């Protein structure tokens, strides 16, 4: 009878709501709430409030509701929130405060599993004698992730370790959340200016099986650790032990990028940005992989000046390295060779079939994206990100019409999303760095 009650207690204490109906109801409340506030907003406009005042109020309420629900549900919902978080820099300053506050909460914490549940998962994954593998284990989680939580411990050989434990029911919840979120992708589009939410969700759904298997994550991390072994700029924590739902890695202490974004010095911001860009562009050549979960919670600056990278559940495998076509597109845009640029884009599938598009219009649309490569040092800022978001979102502009003729081929989706995410973090950091020299060194096809 005691075991049965313990089982009931575990269900009551569960950190991740597992019943599909309950999770669906929470997610369904988001678009309904956003739509309801939009109707109320029209009413307030009729009573004299300006569009800007109404939009500001709607943005605050939408952000509060969105990230409160996403953070509570975890799973695919929290993963989606983290993916959106890097685009926060593109939200106009007067509307951004509630987003920043909500995103900080989302990245920092979420309701934990009970100690009993955590021990049960550890026993299932590491064996009944799992405690003997640790000299110490802290039952209180040090951090939470989209499908698991991280505990601090000491391995039996004295090494401080991070122990990531997957939430029971994470697989079921992840699939349910992403199916539901895809249904409402149009309503969420307004919360991520300058990015396409529907393909973002499709890509997250396509990669969910990889993220659910911590053995695959451990293999990815081992590959990165080998590639950057003894590197003077990048530190990848080593994997200590792994199983399908538990991964144990070396513990890393440093300054999280979220803290640097909030209160870092100019030098810290610039150096964090430089190290992030160096890691992003060098990984395909050095590791034949691309870290594909770019949000501030996965990066920290160590006291010795290196960047440490965490969470390798989402990784793009690039056995041939970064595609040279990407470098060639950058180069043609920089050189103003609009006709050649359009030919390459058509050949690679970036232009919709039978689309009648002008080469100069395409060139003008893409030129701002390579602006960071036109200067020896470029200042990534929220203002620059906001300008790009407004440009792409202005339905009256030629850029908007041009974009409707373009297409993002499926095999380019992940690289595009990760690069956009990295740029989003650079803008949050307000970093100034010599990006062009990094791209010249690491991006095939750019220098030729």
Automatic annotation (TrEMBL):
InterPro entries: ABC1_dom (IPR004147), ADCK3_dom (IPR034646), Atypical_kinase_ADCK (IPR051409), Kinase-like_dom_sf (IPR011009). Residues 105-322 form the ABC1 atypical kinase-like domain. CDD domains: ABC1_ADCK3 (cd13970). This is ABC transporter ATP-binding protein. Keywords: ATP-binding, Nucleotide-binding, Transferase. Belongs to the protein kinase superfamily. ADCK protein kinase family. It holds the Pfam family ABC1. GO terms for molecular function: ATP binding; transferase activity. It comes from the Bacteria. It comes from Prauserella muralis.
């Amino acid at each position: 009878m005691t075991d049965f009650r313990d089982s009931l207690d575990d269900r009551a204490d569960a950190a991740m709501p597992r019943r599909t109906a309950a999770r669906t109801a929470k997610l369904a409340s988001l678009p309904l709430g956003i739509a309801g506030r939009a109707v109320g907003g029209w009413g307030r406009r009729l009573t004299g409030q300006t569009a800007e005042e109404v939009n500001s109020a709607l943005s605050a309420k939408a952000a509060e509701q969105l990230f409160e629900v996403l953070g509570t549900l975890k799973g695919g919902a929290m993963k989606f929130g983290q993916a959106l978080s890097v685009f926060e820099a593109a939200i106009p300053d007067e509307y951004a405060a509630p987003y920043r506050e909500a995103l900080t909460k989302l990245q920092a914490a979420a309701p934990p599993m009970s100690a009993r549940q955590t021990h049960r998962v550890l026993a299932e994954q590491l064996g009944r004698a799992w405690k003997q593998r640790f000299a110490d284990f802290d039952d209180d989680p040090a951090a939470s992730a989209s499908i698991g939580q991280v505990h601090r411990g000491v391995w039996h050989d004295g090494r401080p370790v991070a122990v990531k434990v997957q939430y029971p029911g994470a697989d079921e919840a992840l699939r349910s959340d992403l199916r539901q979120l895809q249904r409402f992708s149009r309503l969420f589009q307004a919360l991520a200016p300058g990015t396409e939410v529907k393909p973002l969700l499709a890509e997250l759904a396509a990669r969910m099986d990889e993220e659910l298997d911590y053995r695959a994550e451990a293999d990815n991390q081992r590959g990165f650790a080998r590639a950057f072994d003894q590197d003077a700029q990048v530190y990848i924590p080593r994997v200590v032990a792994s199983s399908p739902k538990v991964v144990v890695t070396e513990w890393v202490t440093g300054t999280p990028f979220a803290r640097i974004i909030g209160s870092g010095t100019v030098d810290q911001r610039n150096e964090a940005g430089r190290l992030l860009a160096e890691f992003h562009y060098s990984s395909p050549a050095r590791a034949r992989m691309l870290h594909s979960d770019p949000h501030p919670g996965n990066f920290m600056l160590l006291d010795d000046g290196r960047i440490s990278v965490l969470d390798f559940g989402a990784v793009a495998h690039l056995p041939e390295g970064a595609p040279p076509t990407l470098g060639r597109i950058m180069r043609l845009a920089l050189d103003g060779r609009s006709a050649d640029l359009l030919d390459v884009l058509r050949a690679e599938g970036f232009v919709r079939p039978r689309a009648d598009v002008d080469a100069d219009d395409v060139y003008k649309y893409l030129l701002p994206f390579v602006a960071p490569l036109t200067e020896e040092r470029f200042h990534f800022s929220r203002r620059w990100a906001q300008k790009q978001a407004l440009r792409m979102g202005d339905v009256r502009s030629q850029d908007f019409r041009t974009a409707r003729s373009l297409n993002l081929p499926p095999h380019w989706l992940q690289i595009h999303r990760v690069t956009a995410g990295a740029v989003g973090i650079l803008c949050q950091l307000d970093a100034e760095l010599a990006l062009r020299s990094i791209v010249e060194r690491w991006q095939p096809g750019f220098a030729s």
